[in-house]
Design brief:
- Six copies of one chain form a homohexamer.
- By secondary structure, chain A is of the alpha+beta class.
- The first copy, chain A, contains five helices and eight strands.
- Chain A has helices at residues 25-40, 52-67, 113-127, 143-151, 180-186, and strands at residues 8-10, 15-19, 72-78, 81-92, 97-104, 133-139, 155-166, 169-179.
- An eight-stranded mixed β-sheet of chain A has the order 1-2-3-4-5-6-8-7, sandwiched between helices.
- The radius of gyration of chain A is 16 Å and the shape is globular.
- Chain A binds chain F through residues 4-11, 19, 21-23, 60, 63-64, 66-69, 120-121, 123-124, 127-130, and chain F through 4-11, 19, 21-23, 60, 63-64, 66-69, 120-121, 123-124, 127-130.
Chain lengths: 187, 187, 187, 187, 187, 187
């Protein structure tokens, strides 16, 4: 990894989760542009045009959420290159839970990067934020995403019909959950 | 019903759903005070002290949500008396769905008021807002609430573990859903 | 009238005043476009270009006013068609008064729709909001508008010189008023 | 007058209208406290308790109005002492008009201070802001205020019934107006 | 000077500092356009395009600062013509200090206008705002500006390296200061 | 160090700079309370009462600054204990500079913690934010703070008289600076 200091959650000797700040807009925009086609299959936002200005607004929005304790967006850096993103979404202190999301550059799939990084992010959520539950929501037909949730030991709690609009149709969403008690036990 | 004009959704000759405005704060506060004990069994907010000022803030908050097209809070008026509340919560235009919530004065339970009023509110959501889905979320152990969802023809889509904090513990939530296509068919 | 539930103030078997919401923008924009020429004779706002985006902003603005208890904008629905608009403007709780405004599609003039709908809106203001006074302000030369105020039994209280800019000149405004005590007596 | 520089509109060798800023809160609060009883006869706001904090909030509010081009609040300094206040209220660029208000320490009444200061403020409104009309609104029974309006050459344009709440009752308001054309002629 | 009332700080029989308001946008924009080339040598903002809309935004921004007690922007009127600008920047009540800035039309340089006007503004800052210190920050190579600071009796307190970006390079800034105690002594 | 993931800038095997979030309010409040007396000698804010609510507001404020790219507040964790704080203050992208501040628990002084942590923070500012300059401002009489600046290789650029209010008097501030070019050279 880089010998330069960064603001990050350490995953292992190859991977850092760095909090995405405004000065990352260009490199993050480049990454999403390289992956737009693959992203648009499952992510509603990826179908919109995605200028640098929109990426800046998105990062600003997520940083304000972070400032208010309602979420966070991290970049996945692998060997000092930005290759993916993981988010803490809808962080809800009242009900003590959060939903995590993730995606990785298509050329980096198959190395287990998302699974390793998610494990660190889940530990961060349970340990640092002392949350009671972490959820993963993914389209039922998104096998790669569901495989991550299952590999991480999450329980499939329900399939919510037509829960998300994706272009001109609606997709069913699988809800996976891990309780703090599950997590502590497993370790 | 009153011969005076009100801003409402008509349910039947006995029942009106009136949009709750700031001038209803006193009567709504009285109603919640009379039902606090029963409400607190299932509704996290009911355990907090609930002054007139808090009720005013709550109504102001829901009116701003209404102004932004993100929800609405209605009072259930039965024979010109406020006896309950129904809400359109988390109205989500992007994914074209909404969650409805409801409660009624304990002394008015058993008359089917909530079921009748919910039917009108569901028709309003599907017809006037052209939504694709209506959901009902209720604690799995809240039998009365689940019975309403089932009587209305909603499908049980999942049971989300420890999804809501209720005082010192967490409760599992049943998610029920009705699609616009279900609703049109049934009529 | 429609058998579908709407959020409205009932006027009579033909007329409903529905609170204008964001999803009404298209139909409201169409109505103003059909009447632009006639509206521009007396209404300063009608002279501006009036895109769908501007109508959405206007409705959003009026809904925020409604949320803050400072006004409301209603559509006049006649036999389930939007044919005009009535507003509660400058609703002032401190001095317990409001000004009402109104206009109707030129093809619908002469049926007394505005007078009937105004009566309901005035009753709503006095009964539901418990106001002390309703005013109507109209250009002195706007005979049709003045006739409505007089037919409704309002008193002409003054003529304010050059009170409103209309394009390149200023027009005098007649101020009409009805006190809550007048209204109760008359009924 | 003081040899120290101030931000003001010059009236004559004895009188300055200084824009009220946050650092004037203490001296302005003292002045209103000395005159509370007299002010409360005609000014609704004077009946409320009037702490230094409330005066600071009021001045902050008027300064924000000034920043937005919607009004201004001036102190009347006579021989370097704050003895009254004059305001530009509801400054309306769209209709090119403003309402002025005024009051003076009871011990300073009878010297024509308000009339002299109002003349300068009216000239400021017509010349600097290029407005088309200045109005004065005062309770019909407030003889002293009406005398100022008449002495300044304003025309009585109407008497609006129960236009202002004053404690437990409503008072009629006389509306006086001066057009830019009247003003230019008179000079 | 004009016989019309203006809101100003009097400097002498030829010069007024008028608080810049929104209606001055056109004349202020004209002045900056005439001086753009000269201004851009030392003022970073002058290099940007400078439409009327940008000038309006700038004045609005400075008026909001003024409303919050954090600064003020004045126009320098010489014989009733706008010929320059002086600002109270970063007004800091907590540390009781302010920085002043100034510039004048190139055709008006050499008459001592800035020095005379600055003296009045400094007196205003010390007397009316009761500040403890006034500073002047200027690029070390800006001889004209430094000469003003020195003529006014300010002390050179430091030279901060590369403190301001000017186009594609950074310039060193000289910091000059005058304490309230210096000012009182000198008079 | 803790085996649990944290969001941090790594300094060395003993020290982490963790971005201070809302959930750190209690531990940060405890630390400032233990050091209040020593802090109040040089830090104006330390003299105010410092409840948990105030600490929460302070952290919220710094997180909003961070979200807007205008600063950041870090806790200094030594062997997994919070023992001090370092800040990026007045981060100014336009002029490409930032000021850093620091303090450490009195019981931890003398171990060089602040110097080591500052080196990492300075590297972060120059490398990650690509700034052109880092400054340190400290009271001239604060020898410990000045020694850190000098040990880090900063240049003393000026002494600004009475630049900061500290209780009932003003203190002179020494300004130290390091340019990006100095920093690169030194490494």
């Amino acid at each position: 990894m880089s010998s330069q200091p960064t603001l990050h959650i350490a995953v292992d000797s190859d991977i850092q989760l760095r909090l995405l700040e405004l000065h990352h807009a260009q490199v993050y925009n480049d990454l999403t542009n390289r992956n737009r086609e693959a992203l648009a299959v499952w992510m509603p936002w990826a179908a919109y045009e995605n200028s640098l200005e929109q990426t800046q607004s998105f990062l600003q929005y997520k940083l304000r959420q972070f400032a208010d304790g309602k979420g966070a967006q991290f970049g996945l850096w692998y060997q000092d290159q930005l290759v993916g993103a993981l988010g803490l979404n809808d962080l809800d202190r009242e009900d003590s839970k959060v939903e995590i999301g993730y995606w990785v550059d298509t050329s980096m799939q198959g190395k287990g990067l998302v699974t390793r990084a998610s494990r660190a992010l889940i530990a961060y959520a349970f340990h640092e934020y002392a949350l009671n539950k972490v959820e993963i929501h993914c389209a039922t037909a998104n096998k790669r995403s569901r495989a991550v949730a299952e590999r991480l030991g999450f329980l499939h709690e329900g399939t919510i019909r037509q829960a998300q609009r994706l272009g001109d149709h609606f997709v069913d969403m699988a809800i996976y959950g891990m309780l703090a008690s599950d997590w502590r036990e497993e370790r």
